[in-house]
Amino acid sequence: MLARLQQLLAFAGLIVIAAVFAVATPTFGTYGNVVNILFSTVVIGLLALGTTFVIVTGGIDLSIGTGMALCAVMSGTFVVTWGLPWPLGALLAVLFGGLIGLVNGVSTARFGLPPFIATLATMLVAQGLALVVSESTPIYFNDSPGYLLLSTGTLIPDFPNAVLVLIAATAVAAVLLRRSVLGRYAFAMGSNEEATALSGIDVTRWKIAIYTLAGLFTGLAGVMISARLGSAQPATGAGYELQAIAAVVIGGTSLSGGRGSIVGTVIGALIISVLNNGLQLLSIPQEWQNVILGIVILIAVYADMARRRAVAVH
Amino acid sequence: MRRRQLLIGGLAVAGLAACDRGSGAAGDGPYVAIVSKGFQHQFWQAVKKGAEQEAAGAGATITFEGPATEKEVEAQITMLTNAIAKRPDAIGFAALDSRAAEGLLQQAKAQNIPVIAFDSGVESQVPLTTAATDNLAAAGEAAKHMSELIGGSGKVALVVHDQTSLTGQQRRDGFTGWMAANAPGVQLLPVQYGEGDQARSADITKSILGANPDVKGIYGANEGSAIGVVRGVQESGRTGVTIVGFDSGKAQLDAIRSGLMAGAITQNPVGMGAALVSAALRAIRGETLEKTIDTGYFWYDNTNIDSPEIQAVLYQ
Question: How far is CA B201 from the centre of its chain?
Answer without folding.
Answer: 19
